Amino acid sequence: MMNKNARYELRIKRKRRVKLKVQRNKNKLRLTVYKSAKHIYAQIIDDLQGKTLVSESSQSAAFREQLKYGGNVKAAGLVGSLLGEKAVKEGIKEVYCDRNGFIYAGRIGALADAVREKGVQF
Hints:
- The protein contains four helices and four strands.
- The protein is α+β, with helices and mostly antiparallel strands.
- It has a single domain (4-117), classed as Nucleotidyltransferase, domain 5 (2-Layer Sandwich).
- Strands 3-2-1-4 form a four-stranded mixed sheet.
- Helix 3 packs parallel to helix 4 (107-117).
- The longest helix has 21 residues, at 4-24.
- The termini are far apart.
């Protein structure tokens, strides 16, 4: 069984690998995702301007009106759907997914699927 530091180091290696791919696609906006044990955070960033265009998390007021706990797949789907709605209102149609070294399954996959359902393409 792997200890906590080994898992963290593997995530950092994946993060570096993904970051290189993101840097090659600077003409696209970046959807970055971070998850903790209790919450999930997502934002769309324009790297050319260095600005966050849209953000959403499981700690926002819109999320808290619908769900109380933010550490499961259902919560990630809701955060993705709220982020997708905001992105469509801002006119964002295409992004590059920066999963921040996390494996594309579970909460990360649910968030990405919910954003896609709202009309934002990856």
